[in-house]
Amino acid sequence: MRMKKTVSFSKNTTNVFFHILTNCNLKCEHCYINKEQHGENILPIETIESWLKIFIEKNNDANVIFLGGEPTLHPDLPRAIKKAKSLGYNSITVDTNGYLFHNILSKVDPDAVDYFSFSLDGATRKTNDMIRGEGSYDKCIAGIRKTISKGFTTSLIYTVSKKNLSELHTIAPFLKELGITRFFIQVIGIRGQSAENWHEKLQVSRKEWLKTIPFVADKVAKLGITVTYPKVFLNGDEPFACAGLVAKNYFIFPNGRVYQCPICEDFPLHSYSLEGNILLKTPNINETDLFELNILEGCVMNKLIQPDNLSYDSQGKPKYKVACCMLKEEIQGQ
Ligand code: SF4
Ligand code: SF4
Fold first, then answer.
1. How many CB atoms lie within 10 A of CB 285?
2. d(CA 274, CA 289)
3. Contact, 242 vs 299, CB < 8 A?
4. To which H or E segment does residue 182 belong?
5. Maximum CA pair distance of the chain?
């Protein structure tokens, strides 16, 4: 039987989302990278190694996700992966747009990388390329096929917005045919490029989300692929919790900023900064002050920067709470 479960935040596991550079060969419409806030430098390998060490020393039970920009543009990514492995990270993931620069697949072996995670934002070439750029669909698919043929495990991330929600239901057989092991549905965050194009109203409503996402997730899981998607909307009896208070997620940028909440990344609200390879707490006011606020709408940052997914009754009371963006539903594939 397939099990659907809400994956609550783990106090014991550390997840390190490590942006080793912000450069990218693509210009996706909803890219969340904000160079003014995150810098443009390419982290030297010695710095990457030192920072990896800092986070595993805080907690032996840690996972790392290498991100960019496009992390395969970093010529020393293979060395960073090997270092993470030797330091004892539980799992190592590389998020990529599929261009797989610097011949990365021949410089690491499948034992060292748990997942190459590909981003595709349309079930059709037309929709994906409208969002991610001409040619990116074919390149991503070719990248997935090549990665699997070399014995690596792959996942696929589909960021849902108003622009691609309608074709998500067609993707299941294609994921199976490609040989994808895990499927991550993401929800568009109004930050980076999406915040600049705020007038586009990319967020999907609660009704649209609930009508489509659980149904697609179930369909994909029936094909043996494990599916993870954000909860986004809480039902009346479901408790709200902010991951910033109860989990250990660190979003590291090449300028040394370390956030605990991804929705805060457009602002200088980071709770730590890495200076001279030392992790320092930043002075107030920072994101940790916001985590403490208790509001009827649930997530404070959601209300502040992307309130289009909220709805109120005639008395002005919110009809539901929006969950922490890190709260996920997972359906094991069988
Ligand atoms: S591939 Fe990723 S980093 Fe590059 S532009 Fe697209 S969303 Fe941004
Ligand atoms: S998304 Fe909202 S609830 Fe989650 S860590 Fe950020 S502020 Fe907290």
1. 10
2. 20
3. yes
4. strand 182-187
5. 61
Tokens found for residue 1: 């039987």
Phi, psi of 294 (to 5 degrees): -110, 110
Residue predicted with more confidence, 192 or 133: 133
Burial group, residue 137, by CB count within 10 angstroms (0-12, 13-18, 19+): buried
User: What count of residues does the chain have?
Assistant: 334
How far does residue 294's CA lie from ligand 2's centre (Å)? 11
Q: How far does residue 89's CA lie from ligand 1's centre (Å)?
A: 25
pTM above 0.85, yes or no: yes
Closest-CA residue, ligand 1 atom 6, reads 28
Domain boundaries, the chain: 4-331
Helix H or strand E encompassing 143 = helix 136-149
Q: What is the pLDDT of residue 308?
A: 86
pLDDT at residue 42, as a whole number: 96
Answer yes or no: are the C-beta atoms of 127 and 167 closer than 8 Å: yes
CATH number of 4-331: 3.20.20.70
Half-sphere exposure of 191 (CA within 13 A, CB side): 20
